[in-house]
């Protein structure tokens, strides 16, 4: 039976990069490697502009009935004046929470072809291959109470709530332990247990669960130290697991270590194996519509989709190999361009990857 | 009239590094550059061990009546099993809040002599000079409600509260605007206003206040992007201002860009100009007691104290010049050692700086 893939291009460079990823999916379909049906939908600023809601009901319903969602990016200065409830980001957060996508996998991998793109010294980052597992449906992103209230004095006060239950912590930690098992057997759990009780509970649960994974070496690190260690010696890490807010900050920091965030995919999974796949970079409004954005992160997100939601691990490897081949051939989009390479646009890069499949 | 300086050595390498900083203060006293009275007190794990409380009443009282506090560092694995309320960190947090030290200044400066110590490429960090202004008495560090509660289902749930009032935000932003005025006139306010209402209020207040500082260029950045930009192009920043939690993470990341956190001081100020001064590195229990720790961050914290709380800006410059001279002479502690330099211990470094005064 065909699998259903919902394509949500979103804002900024979203439509351009998603178009290339769709080419890849269609090529695999033509080769008989997969059997999918593609649908399209609106999310983010594009959806707000069309119908006043960053996550229209039809979009959420279509996502729920899909096997996988491919998302470009949401947001841009145009919608920044809107209240939080109407912003493009609310569309993304609504999908995460509506689909229960609690496990966000964010690999930070350095491509040997792109080592010069990093701002870090080559010896510090060469061979970097770390995986950040970020909890995605809890924490201060969704905690209640929240909002801005007016005190009796007339002064206003902004409040958000960081909150985790034991079962939420356990669920994401098991995903991380399992992943570490398939990798280098090391898991670093990041918290602020010396100050925040919520993360003290996190640390306690992590420690308790580690008894079930004797083959995985668990360590704990405070979030401030983790931000330091990512800069000082990122190769010390295999899998890192943390909450939604710390994961947001650390995964972007880790991604930037590779120097090529235009290359990095992500997967957000729920308990039924449904997933949403998106590049970790944003909507880059400054370069939108110019055909220069790097589609590779989105194409590698398709590879993650093939592996995690479409049960097509061979097709996933094919896509990854095709990307590596095109890089070996010297093709580069502007963001990863270095002297001696051949600079290409979004569509040319997508076409080259399809040709290499 | 003499000024009173309370010395709190704390834990780990605290006593060793503070001893060298005290040598510097005494030398300045002998030269007639300052007129101070030194007192000592207990804080952190040392205080807990002595009297079961990481912040004894006498310590807080002595700090309140001092013009400045010099702090080494607190914490260590020995006290990690303790509940949050008894941990060494609580001593530090109690001082911050008890003295109302809302403005934490954390410079991240790259010493030209130490450019090789950075893990970043020289062109990315050479000349780096950024100042992080971190709010220090509010946010999720102190917000109520907090703690771990048991739900009717028997499951536990950890909660912390991120909270800021308009006046708290305004107070720290004014400090940051004033600092930017004395520097390169650029201020970047860091928040997560696309998701957290508390920081949406932060952004609104920052924007409103900017009308009072037309000579300062205010920009806003999301915290995840800020973590990226610190790695990508840290020299784009002059002054950054943010809340307590984001400041904790970003200032450590920024400090590590310089490659020598053993060099970086900090100041925490209240509205009356009282201040607490401490190195930004921690208690480094792994090297404690071995006489190898770098005392420079603590000695440069004394320079900040001279400038901000002891009204002795000339003496502050003297200390900074002495540190630079000793580095020029090639003296290095283990953490900043590079080939061709002369490696020295904690006391030898302190003595050399005193001699260079
Ligand atoms: C766009 C924003 C809401 C989102 C987040 O904060 O989670 C983004 O930064 C991310 O990391 O996917
Ligand atoms: C020790 C700890 C409580 C403290 C903090 O989180 O503020 C430290 O990390 C710092 O940055 O001064």
From TrEMBL, chains A, B:
<comment type="similarity">
    <text>Belongs to the isocitrate and isopropylmalate dehydrogenases family. LeuB type 1 subfamily.</text>
</comment>
<feature type="binding site">
    <location>
        <begin position="76"/>
        <end position="89"/>
    </location>
    <ligand>
        <name>NAD(+)</name>
    </ligand>
</feature>
<feature type="binding site">
    <location>
        <position position="252"/>
    </location>
    <ligand>
        <name>Mg(2+)</name>
    </ligand>
</feature>
<keyword id="KW-0432">Leucine biosynthesis</keyword>
<feature type="binding site">
    <location>
        <position position="224"/>
    </location>
    <ligand>
        <name>Mg(2+)</name>
    </ligand>
</feature>
<dbReference type="GO" id="GO:0000287">
    <property type="term" value="F:magnesium ion binding"/>
</dbReference>
<keyword id="KW-0560">Oxidoreductase</keyword>
<dbReference type="GO" id="GO:0003862">
    <property type="term" value="F:3-isopropylmalate dehydrogenase activity"/>
</dbReference>
<protein>
    <recommendedName>
        <fullName>3-isopropylmalate dehydrogenase</fullName>
        <ecNumber>1.1.1.85</ecNumber>
    </recommendedName>
</protein>
<dbReference type="GO" id="GO:0051287">
    <property type="term" value="F:NAD binding"/>
</dbReference>
<feature type="binding site">
    <location>
        <position position="134"/>
    </location>
    <ligand>
        <name>substrate</name>
    </ligand>
</feature>
<feature type="site" description="Important for catalysis">
    <location>
        <position position="141"/>
    </location>
</feature>
<dbReference type="InterPro" id="IPR004429">
    <property type="entry name" value="Isopropylmalate_DH"/>
</dbReference>
<keyword id="KW-0520">NAD</keyword>
<keyword id="KW-0963">Cytoplasm</keyword>
<keyword id="KW-0460">Magnesium</keyword>
<feature type="binding site">
    <location>
        <position position="106"/>
    </location>
    <ligand>
        <name>substrate</name>
    </ligand>
</feature>
<feature type="binding site">
    <location>
        <position position="224"/>
    </location>
    <ligand>
        <name>substrate</name>
    </ligand>
</feature>
<comment type="function">
    <text>Catalyzes the oxidation of 3-carboxy-2-hydroxy-4-methylpentanoate (3-isopropylmalate) to 3-carboxy-4-methyl-2-oxopentanoate. The product decarboxylates to 4-methyl-2 oxopentanoate.</text>
</comment>
<dbReference type="InterPro" id="IPR019818">
    <property type="entry name" value="IsoCit/isopropylmalate_DH_CS"/>
</dbReference>
<comment type="subunit">
    <text>Homodimer.</text>
</comment>
<keyword id="KW-0479">Metal-binding</keyword>
<feature type="binding site">
    <location>
        <position position="248"/>
    </location>
    <ligand>
        <name>Mg(2+)</name>
    </ligand>
</feature>
<feature type="binding site">
    <location>
        <begin position="282"/>
        <end position="294"/>
    </location>
    <ligand>
        <name>NAD(+)</name>
    </ligand>
</feature>
<feature type="binding site">
    <location>
        <position position="96"/>
    </location>
    <ligand>
        <name>substrate</name>
    </ligand>
</feature>
<keyword id="KW-0028">Amino-acid biosynthesis</keyword>
<dbReference type="Pfam" id="PF00180">
    <property type="entry name" value="Iso_dh"/>
</dbReference>
<keyword id="KW-0464">Manganese</keyword>
<dbReference type="GO" id="GO:0005829">
    <property type="term" value="C:cytosol"/>
</dbReference>
<feature type="domain" description="Isopropylmalate dehydrogenase-like">
    <location>
        <begin position="4"/>
        <end position="353"/>
    </location>
</feature>
<dbReference type="GO" id="GO:0009098">
    <property type="term" value="P:L-leucine biosynthetic process"/>
</dbReference>
<keyword id="KW-0100">Branched-chain amino acid biosynthesis</keyword>
<dbReference type="InterPro" id="IPR024084">
    <property type="entry name" value="IsoPropMal-DH-like_dom"/>
</dbReference>
<comment type="pathway">
    <text>Amino-acid biosynthesis; L-leucine biosynthesis; L-leucine from 3-methyl-2-oxobutanoate: step 3/4.</text>
</comment>
<feature type="site" description="Important for catalysis">
    <location>
        <position position="192"/>
    </location>
</feature>
């Amino acid at each position: 039976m065909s699998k259903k893939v919902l394509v949500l291009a979103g804002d900024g460079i979203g439509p351009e990069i998603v178009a290339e990823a769709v080419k890849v999916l269609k090529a695999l379909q033509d080769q008989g490697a997969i059997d999918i049906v593609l649908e399209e939908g609106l999310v983010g600023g594009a959806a707000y502009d069309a119908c006043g809601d960053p996550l229209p009901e039809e979009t959420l319903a279509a996502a729920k009935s899909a096997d996988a969602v491919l998302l470009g990016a949401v947001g841009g200065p145009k919608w920044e004046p809107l209240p939080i409830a109407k912003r493009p980001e609310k569309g993304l957060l609504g999908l995460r929470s509506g689909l229960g996508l609690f496990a966000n996998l964010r690999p930070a991998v350095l491509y040997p072809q792109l080592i010069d793109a990093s701002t870090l010294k080559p010896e510090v980052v060469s061979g970097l291959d770390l995986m950040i597992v970020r909890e995605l449906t809890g924490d201060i992103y969704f905690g209640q109470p929240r909002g801005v209230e007016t005190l009796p004095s007339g002064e206003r006060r902004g409040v958000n709530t960081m909150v985790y239950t034991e079962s939420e912590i356990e669920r994401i930690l098991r995903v991380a332990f399992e992943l570490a098992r398939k990798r280098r057997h090391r898991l670093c759990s990041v918290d602020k247990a010396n100050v925040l009780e919520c993360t003290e509970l996190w640390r306690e649960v992590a420690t308790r669960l580690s008894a079930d994974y004797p083959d995985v070496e668990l360590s704990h690190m405070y979030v401030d130290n983790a931000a330091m260690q990512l800069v000082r010696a990122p190769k010390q890490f295999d899998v890192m697991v943390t909450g939604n807010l710390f994961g947001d900050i650390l995964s972007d920091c880790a991604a930037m270590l590779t120097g090529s965030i235009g290359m990095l995919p992500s997967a957000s999974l729920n308990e039924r194996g449904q997933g949403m796949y998106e590049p970790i970079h944003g909507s880059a409004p400054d370069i939108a519509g110019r055909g220069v954005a790097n589609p590779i992160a989105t194409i590698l997100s398709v590879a993650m989709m093939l592996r995690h939601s479409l049960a097509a691990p061979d097709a996933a490897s094919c896509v990854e190999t095709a990307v590596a081949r095109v890089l070996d051939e010297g093709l580069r989009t502007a963001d990863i361009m270095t002297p001696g390479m051949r600079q290409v646009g979004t569509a040319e890069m997508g076409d080259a990857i399809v040709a290499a499949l």
